[in-house]
User: Fold this.
Amino acid sequence: MFNRRSLMAASLAGLVALMGLASTNVACARESADPIKVGHYGSLTGAQATFGKSTSNGIRLAIKEFNAAGGLNGRLVELIEYDTKGEAREAGTAVTRLVASDKVVAVLGEVASSLSLAGGRVAQQYGVPMISPSSTNPAVTKIGNMVSRVCFTDDFQGYAAAKFAWENKKAKKVAVLFDQAAAYSKGLKDDFQKAFKEMGGEITTTQAFTQGDRDFTPQLTAIRETNPDILFVPGYYTDVGNIALQARKLGITVPMLGGDGWDSEELPKVAGDAIKGSYYVNHYSPDQPTPAVQEFVTKYKAEYGGATPDGLAALGYDAAKMLFDAMKRSASLSGKDLAAAINSTKDFPGVTGAITIDEGRNASKPAVIVEYAGSPLAPVFTASVDVKK
Ligand code: PHE
Assistant:
C-alpha cells in the first residue's frame, strides 16, 4: 500500500540515483532524467464522463506505483492527458497533439470504439503505439501494428451474452435495441444475434436508436408486440437508463441484457429499480474473489477516497502496467521498438485476467456477467464465461 510520504521517499531515491549519474556524464544524465511522456485521451467531460475519469484514475494509480518503484531505470513517467468530451473529432485532435506536439512515447485510450478508431488512425500514421484499454470493436486493432488492446473483442462479448441468455436464462426469444451511431453497438448487435441464432434462439425484432435520443417509445412498443424473453440493449449507460425506465413504463417486465457499455455507477442512479434483475457482460467485477482483483480494489479505494473501481478503472490500470512492462523489455522507446515489445506481450498478469497480445493485437480473456441486484441496488458478479467458444 502506498501513502504520499513513502512515494515521495521513493522518487527522492530515484533523483539521488540520477544525480550520481550526473557526476560521471552530464549530458547522458540530463537525457535520462527527462520524464518519459505517456499520453491518455478520454471522455473526462460530456455524456460518457465516467468512462474517461475511471480510466484516468486507473492509469494514474499504475503510474504512481511504477514511479515509486524507480520508473524505467530511474526515469519517471509523466502523464499528459486530453479530454475528448466523448466526440470522435476531439479524439483525433487529442491524439495529434499528443504525438506531434507533446511527443509522447505511447498513447493510452480511448474507451468508446468510435473514438479509438479516430485516434488509432492518427497514432498509426505517426508511428506511435496506442493501447486501448477497453474498446472492443474488432476494427480498432485492424488499423495497424501500432494499435493494440488489453480487452476482449465484441465477437467474444456477443457470444458471452448469447450464451448467458440461452443457457443460464433459458431464453428462446430475444428482442434487440441498439445504438446506430456507435461502432461498438452496431458490431455487438451483429455478434450477439449471430451467436444467439447459432445456439437455436430467435431474434424477434431489431430496433435502432441514436445516442442522446430521449424518447424510445416507438421502438419499445414494437418490441413489446413481439413478447421476448429478454431485451438485449448493447448501448452506453447514458441511454440505457432511460430505455429501462421507459420499457418498464410500457409494461415490458422481462430482464434486460447488455454489454460492457453499461458499466457506470450512473446507470443505477438514473434507472433505479427499472434496471433491477437485469444483466450485463463486463471485463471484471470488484467482487470477484481472486487475489489480483481484491488487492487492486483495496489499493484503489485507499487512493481515491473509498471509491470502488469499475471495469474501466481496472482496464486503464492494466493497459498502463502492460505498457510499462513492454518499456522494460523494449530495445528503445522508439515507436517501432515499443510497438514490437507491446505486441509480444505474453501472460502479463492483469487485474482483468492474464493478457497475451495475439497476432491481431487483441487479448483473449474471460468475461464476467454482472447482475443489478439487492437493496441498495448494486452490480453483483453472477457468472463468468470462458474465452473458448
Ligand atoms: N467496449 C466499449 C466500446 O468499445 C467501451 C466500454 C468498455 C465501456 C468497458 C464500458 C466498459 O465502445
About this structure: The longest helix spans residues 4-24. Residues 51, 111-113, 134-137, 184, 260-261, 263, 311-312 surround phenylalanine (CB under 6 Å).
